[in-house]
């Protein structure tokens, strides 16, 4: 196994406080060791819609051995949730806890969670929509003075954070040197790899994420191809994204081209991507997001690229054993749990197009090992 | 009793998703009646750091009769919380639920919570700091199309929402007519009363909330004096605020002048105000917030104004039976629960200065009747 991904939020809203945020670490090191030895290079946050409150809640559940975990909470808002383990493919293991509570038996959950926050020094932000940055902003007064956390994003993202958020109007300006360098904004260039603390190599790719209200300009977003330098394993994590067909673009195809070789040589086994709603009638707007139909269409493109590069005697499904982790499902008014519908639709299409991948819908509060 | 206040969030951060937001209604009408008869004029939101997720969580707890309520959750992050009822003065009653679950027995918690959200058509925003607006923004895609919710604030607030948030960068522009009028931004003038749906009359007062990073410009905030037109009862709700002495200003004193007459004629029995941290050493920065020392100093000013207007034969404590509801307590790294410390400090000072008011620290998820 290569990576552990702790989901601090996997919802696409409109409920606040549970929107997208993931903490990544290599599987070869535990949270316990990271905290005990204060290892600052391993934990990396991808998007930050949620944050410290969710870390504290996971630890609190672990400490009190509560049966009602964070993962079950959002599901319990609906009438017809599946049992937790049915949201994940059997090949993926998951945990409800960090396994850190035995470390400091007298310390309160909030003390341990601040310790974890102190050890997350790098944030990759896919785009500046509020549901992907709120946690980073609200948590920032809890950062250690001179913690100098780094926030990486494409130019549009770092500029938006500086101009619209840390602008002494919406939030104090914590990003300039004179203010103690709570936060450093670091601009990424599309397709150019960035070394992070000699542990990770991150390559950003530009995505389309729907049209603005002028109906012309595109919202931009980012996917991050992350390599663990020690194991030479990769994971691909998407921000919000729409299908190439909807955007009349080929941005996603460029990414599929890039990773097809990695998949063939078994260096990339996991893609984390959004699927915001169940399939919709043709005329309904997607607001720059994926449905099962469009996600499968994208994965078919990836499958064709892989097939074209393989020996013609290879009869395996093109995406055999590739883990597709689904996030950013939008909550809805109806009592029917949308993750369940999306997972069913994806599994049916996976079968029909013989892709052979493994779908799991990520739940807030779980740590997945892939 | 005059008002019910449901606390969707009472924390001052840095934990996300539990920051300040209150729903106000007159006590003479129940949530059950409001939902059943779809009465759109009674519920009013003051600040919106939290929102739909917390409404759903309260309903979910009510539905499943869970013992671990939302109010207890944040406290459980610490080692030494008080029992819930010790955070409130005995004169105040509170509830963990809305009392609506028997209404629609088959509907899921999320269905009922969307119904409540649909019936909150007016938001008063004290200032545009993210911990006071995040819920409004993230929840907005869940508003009914053409719901035309009204967001009231001083000019600085409405301009910041338009320019920094609903600007097609941080969030889609949902505030212009052409986009279906999800939200109408309505500018308030300081000290000028505004009629809202013939139920409330709201008068905003400008507050100081600390210095920006240039160390010159002030963050502005707002307090709202809200009158229930039917009962002629008032409640005063503060956004983030610092003491007049710290701001070298008399903005708070102007408000105390205004309400002293209302208190004397028993028309204002409740003030909701922040107290962010326990008392601090003299040199530590307040970041534009209150401590028990500074809050008591402000209340002494109010007490003196009242005493000066009363008969000299009146020997009652000047703030007798005035309910002071404390919010915006900042969470902290240490395992010691800060609300408990603040409440103790306030009660001691109340005793020492013989003010005679009743202090309660508000907890997320509770509905207080005052």
From TrEMBL, chains A, B:
Highest rank taxon of the organism: Eukaryota
One of the GO BP terms on file: cAMP catabolic process
PANTHER family: 3',5'-CYCLIC-NUCLEOTIDE PHOSPHODIESTERASE 1 (PTHR28283:SF1)
Organism of derivation: Wickerhamomyces anomalus (strain ATCC 58044 / CBS 1984 / NCYC 433 / NRRL Y-366-8) (Yeast)
Keywords: cAMP, Hydrolase
Designated name of the protein: 3',5'-cyclic-nucleotide phosphodiesterase
InterPro entries per record: cAMP-PdiesteraseII_CS, Pdiesterase2, RibonucZ/Hydroxyglut_hydro
GO molecular function terms listed in the Swiss-Prot or TrEMBL record: 3',5'-cyclic-AMP phosphodiesterase activity; 3',5'-cyclic-GMP phosphodiesterase activity
Family recorded in the similarity comment: Belongs to the cyclic nucleotide phosphodiesterase class-II family.
């Amino acid at each position: 196994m290569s990576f552990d991904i702790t989901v601090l939020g996997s919802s696409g809203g409109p409920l606040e406080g549970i929107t997208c945020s993931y903490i990544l670490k290599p599987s070869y090191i535990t949270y316990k060791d990271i905290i005990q030895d204060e290892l600052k290079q391993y934990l990396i946050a991808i998007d930050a819609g949620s944050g410290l409150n969710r870390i504290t809640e996971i630890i609190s559940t672990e400490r009190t051995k509560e049966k009602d975990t964070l993962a079950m909470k959002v599901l319990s808002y609906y009438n017809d949730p599946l049992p937790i383990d049915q949201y994940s493919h059997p090949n993926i293991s998951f945990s409800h806890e960090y396994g850190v509570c035995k470390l400091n038996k007298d310390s309160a959950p909030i003390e341990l969670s601040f310790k974890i926050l102190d050890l997350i020094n790098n944030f990759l932000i896919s785009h500046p929509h509020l549901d992907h940055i709120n946690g980073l902003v609200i948590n920032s007064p809890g950062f250690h003075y001179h913690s100098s956390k780094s926030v990486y994003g494409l130019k549009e993202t770092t500029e938006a954070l500086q101009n619209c958020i840390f602008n002494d109007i919406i939030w104090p300006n914590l990003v300039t040197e004179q203010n103690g360098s709570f936060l450093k904004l670091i601009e990424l260039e599309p397709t150019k790899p960035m070394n992070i603390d000699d542990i990770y190599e991150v390559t950003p790719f530009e995505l389309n994420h729907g049209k603005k209200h002028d109906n012309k300009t595109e919202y931009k977003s980012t996917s991050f191809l992350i390599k663990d330098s020690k194991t030479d394993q990769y994971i691909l994590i998407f921000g919000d994204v729409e299908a190439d067909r909807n955007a009349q673009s080929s941005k996603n195809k460029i990414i599929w081209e890039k990773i097809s070789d990695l998949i063939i040589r078994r260096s990339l086994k996991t893609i984390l991507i959004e699927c915001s709603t169940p399939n919709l009638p043709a005329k309904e707007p997607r607001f720059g997001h994926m449905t099962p139909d469009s996600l499968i269409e994208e994965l078919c493109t990836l499958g064709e690229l892989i097939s074209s590069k393989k020996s013609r005697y290879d009869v395996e499904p093109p995406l055999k054993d590739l883990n597709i982790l689904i996030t950013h499902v939008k909550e809805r008014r109806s009592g029917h749990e949308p993750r369940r519908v999306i997972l069913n639709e994806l599994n049916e299409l996976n079968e029909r197009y013989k892709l052979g991948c493994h779908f799991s819908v990520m739940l807030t509060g779980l740590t997945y090992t892939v």
